[in-house]
Amino acid sequence: MASVIQLESDVNNHAWGKKGQSSLAARYADATPGKEFKVESGKEYSEMWIGTNPNNASHILSTGQKLQEWIDGNKEKLLGPAVIEKYGSDLPFLPKVISISNELPLQIHPDKELATKLHKHNPSKFGDPNHKPELTVALTDFEAFVGFKHVDDIEALFQSIPFLRDRFTTQPKTPFTSSTLVKNIVHKLLSLSEEEVAEVYSALRDAPRSEYGDQSYILMLLPRIANQDGATDPSCLVSLLTMNFLTLKKGEALYIPADGIHAFLSGDIIECMAPSDNVINCGVCPSANPESINLFTSALTFDYKNPQSMVMKPKVSTKGLKGHTRVYSPKGSEFDMLVTELKSGEEEHIAGLQGPGIIVVTKGEGKLHTKDVDLELKEGYAFFVGYDTDLKLVADGGEGLDIHMSFCEA
Fold first, then answer.
1. Running DSSP on this structure, what letter comes out for residue 242?
2. What's the CA gap between 52 and 65, in Å, rounded?
3. Is the pTM of this model over 0.85?
4. CATH pick for 10-80+89-146+246-285 out of 3.40.50.1000, 3.40.50.150, 3.40.430.10, 2.60.120.10
5. SS3 60
6. What is the DSSP string of 374-391?
7. Cα(314)–Cα(65) distance, integer angstroms
8. What CATH architecture is 315-407?
9. Which of 4, 48, 139, 229 is the most exposed, fewest CB within 10 Å of its CB?
10. How many CB atoms lie within 10 A of CB 12?
């Protein structure tokens, strides 16, 4: 049995995805040789999952067998004894390539404590008791709302703009001194009707720039969000008015802990997360309702988190024996991610991982060599890498070779 094997993965079509060839997720799916898939110019392509999640499982390219079935046939060799002992025989992480043109649903992934409670209360909706932290690495310019602003900044905005002050605060001088008051603001915003949302947008457009203080970036984002699909959903106002706005350049990364509120706005990313399906959405798809609003706000902590604390810097990885590999290592997660960047003609040797890995070729072309296989690499190709497999990567195209490899070691 080969320890490295090429995969084929499907791409889904959420309305917030990028259209046609502008979607990296679509282009990567289309790159797989022999795959019966063609990119349609007017169709949205949002996510390509590369893993064993049954909702969108990858298959072995050469045989069509599901990846998990193939792993089950020789799990000790492919996953390694330590990973099996700690996580069982399922792949303990899920990489995704995501292409975003409109704001995603406002969401959080519950931590283990909350996930356990939700699973016990409603196992049909929350199918497991696991947390779901996620690591996001930008493949193009990327924009996101992540975490709540400091309460002082929310206070300044809602007190400075008369419409917001009169509509969403109890008194003109409501003291924003606790997360309870921020929670009330968020709950009121999420409870707005479509007509009321339009009224808020109109008031924000009419407010002078001076009333925004150092949050005038809201005026820059306002037309984009107000005119996008789903703009009448009140969750868009929650992100615009109460959350931190971040921009990442290609290669920069964001780590969102299991209880972190977020809503991605635009860009192409490669993401790795725990394999749980647990997510609490509130808005956009589907629209918020009283039950989802109550669940969503009860799950939030509303504590301020410095947005820069969620921006991750990679470190040089000792697994790259020629110095071309960096690693993102989120604390408290089941996974890490290696990033190897090679110029044309360069090579890298990756020491065998003490667990499984998933490779996605994110730029260029080259070759992958192990002791028993030699494989061609092109942008969009994806591979499973088995336990303790030494890799030799060679860039032989004019634009070099970039590899992102998510992996788990117990």
1. H
2. 11
3. yes
4. 2.60.120.10
5. strand
6. EEEEETT-EEEE-TT--E
7. 35
8. Sandwich (2.60)
9. 229
10. 16
